[in-house]
């Protein structure tokens, strides 16, 4: 019944539930944009940011970076557009003060009957001012550590930081040091999401299945261990899923529910979230991960997802 409610909008491609480390439920739907198969690659949109946080965490675990390193050590301000005092931590918590050197957003999926080939890779371009809705002085005069503003542009520059620290492109680092070790079977980047330096658009642009999105949640649920081994430092996982100083609902490129912003979900829940209903919900008290993806005219909200899930899992709906 929960799956039927989640799928009722007509734009879901898949729903995967992991409990106690085992796949306990999955369902897939045919849509004008997707096939009803476990292997189908959906567009992550901003849910890809949480994979980006994992790439940074892996680099820290391997001793390539530290959270409070200056970004300028790896990625000069004249290239990034970031203030010299910006740290990796500022970038992960959306408190850098911003940049005007940005990449375009993720490319939406095409309909199955659309034969258009992928477009060219995205490149940075300097803007004259911050995007509509951004704080006054964003990317120009706001000092780091003063203002929270949710913006994928700064997250993208973390890919350049990891590239410099690792001595390889961020695309190569992500695939060889994160994706393959986690056993992800489908995850690739949109061709438009890789620039001419082979660096990825860290703020999104991933193509992946619901199963592989659920793997990400399981890694964090298990405190950074994978296959019985330490993959990400436990301290990093804890900070990534804990309130940051300027926004108690945000960690390191993960959304948190400690303040009850999703009222019908547990306060301990945290999630990777992307536009049009790309979600990986991690429920520590239930030892559960729920991943759902899809695209269409009707978008699933986090509140809507939990309203459906709570029909089958009433014990989850507690604060």
Task: Characterize the structure shown.
It is a single chain. The protein has 319 residues and is α+β, with helices and mostly antiparallel strands. The chain is built from nine helices and 13 strands. The strands form four sheets. The chain has a six-stranded antiparallel sheet with strand order 2-1-13-12-11-10. A three-stranded antiparallel sheet has the order 3-7-6, covered by helices on one side. It has a two-stranded antiparallel ribbon with strand order 4-5. Strand 1 and strand 2 form a beta hairpin. Helix 2 packs parallel to helix 5 and helix 2 packs across helix 6. The two termini are 23 Å apart.
Write a short abstract of this structure.
This protein has 319 residues and is of the alpha+beta class. The chain contains nine helices and 13 strands. The protein has a six-stranded antiparallel beta sheet.
List keywords for this structure.
319 residues; three-stranded antiparallel sheet; 9 helices; alpha+beta; six-stranded antiparallel sheet; globular; 26% helix; single chain
Helices and strands in order, then pairings?
Layout: H1 2-7, E1 12-19, E2 22-28, E3 42-43, H2 48-61, H3 77-80, H4 88-92, E4 101-102, E5 125-126, H5 152-166, H6 170-179, E6 188-189, E7 206-208, H7 210-221, E8 225-226, E9 229-230, H8 234-240, E10 255-256, E11 270-274, E12 278-283, E13 288-294, H9 302-312
Antiparallel strand pairs: 1-2, 1-13, 3-7, 4-5, 6-7, 8-9, 10-11, 11-12, 12-13
Helix pairs in contact: 2-5, 2-6
Question: What do the pLDDT scores average to?
Answer: 95
* Beta-strand proportion: 15-25%
**Total number of β-strand segments?**
13
Structural class by SSE content: alpha+beta
């Amino acid at each position: 019944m929960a799956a039927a409610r989640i799928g009722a909008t007509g734009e879901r491609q898949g729903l995967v539930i992991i409990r106690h480390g085992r796949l306990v439920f999955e369902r897939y739907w045919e849509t004008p944009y997707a096939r009803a198969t476990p292997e189908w690659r959906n567009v992550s949109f901003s849910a890809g940011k949480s994979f980006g946080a994992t790439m940074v965490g892996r680099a820290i675990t391997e001793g390539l970076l530290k959270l409070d390193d200056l970004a300028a050590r790896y990625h000069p301000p004249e290239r990034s557009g970031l203030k010299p005092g910006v740290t990796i931590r500022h970038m992960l918590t959306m408190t850098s003060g911003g940049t005007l050197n940005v990449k375009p957003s993720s490319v939406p999926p095409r309909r199955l009957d659309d034969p258009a080939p992928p477009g060219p890779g995205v490149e940075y371009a300097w803007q004259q001012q911050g995007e509509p809705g951004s704080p006054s002085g964003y990317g120009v005069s706001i000092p780091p550590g003063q203002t929270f503003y949710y913006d994928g542009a700064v997250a993208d520059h973390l890919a350049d930081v990891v590239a410099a620290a690792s001595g390889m492109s961020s695309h190569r680092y992500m695939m060889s040091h994160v994706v393959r070790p986690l056993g992800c079977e489908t995850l690739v980047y949109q061709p438009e999401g890789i620039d001419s330096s082979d660096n990825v658009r860290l703020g999104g642009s991933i193509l992946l299945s619901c199963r592989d999105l659920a793997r990400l949640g399981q890694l964090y649920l298990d405190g950074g261990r994978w296959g019985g081994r330490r993959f990400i430092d436990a301290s990093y996982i804890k900070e990534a899923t804990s309130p940051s100083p300027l926004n108690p609902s945000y960690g390191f490129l993960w959304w948190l529910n400690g303040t009850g912003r999703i009222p019908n979900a547990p306060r301990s829940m945290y999630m990777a979230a992307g536009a049009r209903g790309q979600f990986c919900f991690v429920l520590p008290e239930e030892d559960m991960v729920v991943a759902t993806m899809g695209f269409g005219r009707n978008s699933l909200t986090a509140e809507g997802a939990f309203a459906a899930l709570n029909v089958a899992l009433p014990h989850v709906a507690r604060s």
